[in-house]
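Can't attach files on this board, so I'm pasting raw text. These are the components:
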Amino acid sequence: MARFLPAMILFAGVAFAQGPDLDKRVNDLASELRCLVCQNQTLADSNAPLAVDLRNQIREQLKGGASERDVIDFMVARYGDFVLYRPPLKPTTIALWAGPFVFLILGVWVLLRRVTRRKLPEPALSDAERSRAAKLLE
Amino acid sequence: MSARSRLFVTLGFFVLLVALLAAGLGLNPREVPSPLIGKPAPHFELPLLGAPDKSFSQKEMLGKVWILNVWASWCPPCLVEHPVITALAKSGIAPVVGLNYKDAREEALPWLSRNGDPYQLSVFDAAGRIAIDYGVYGVPETYVIDRRGVIRYKHIGPLTAEIARKKLEPLLKELNSGG
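---
Top answer:
Structure tokens for the assembled complex are below.
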């Protein structure tokens, strides 16, 4: 028993370091990746069989020493940029990234133009109207 | 800007918006462009569905234009597309290899004897690991692979007779004639 103790401690240490830590890494990565079966869920949220397989795949690869980047590259190579919840900035995605800002600037410009242009001339009142208004205000 | 031209501009924007939304509705969000098109078909070495002691690799198809069809006995759309796959295989335009996905032999083999077996052979991917390499996410999926082992086309979901006629057959003919 005593002979195996160092090995056991080492094993427990490794298991401990891998357990919660690995779980968190798997989960963090899975939250960045789209489940392609139910497209508006992440791999972390989905219970589709493929999502389970892919989560296992992530776990296996991280366990085997792969970095987060490696796993993401693995997924993109198979499923395309669509698996990424945060799409990369590329020529094909420029409209996606810049679009909202273009519309925002356009909106502000239109708004400014409308607001600054609305300089209505002061309405001229006749004497009769003036006295009527004064009467109403009394 | 006159009231009239302003009306036209507004109307123009509205029509543009409607056109954009209509185009968006017409797109199928399931059709995710595969990054695998134009890339070599991922390597596999899997046991045969019908003979567990024998294995098959995609390498054995080098020099041939062929179709890889991912199917499973538990997948109703696979049954829907089955006549189309059968007709394609019967036409002799290209050999069809089946990739039996996350299935059980005692389910898959009766499925084939019940519905007919159009496949030159089916490989058995019980864990679905090879399917991940092929980017499979919705069975059935169909791949066209050329003589050099490069994926040329991928269809996700059941193959219809129309898609087979309009997309697959012309591509297969072109590839067969040396393309």
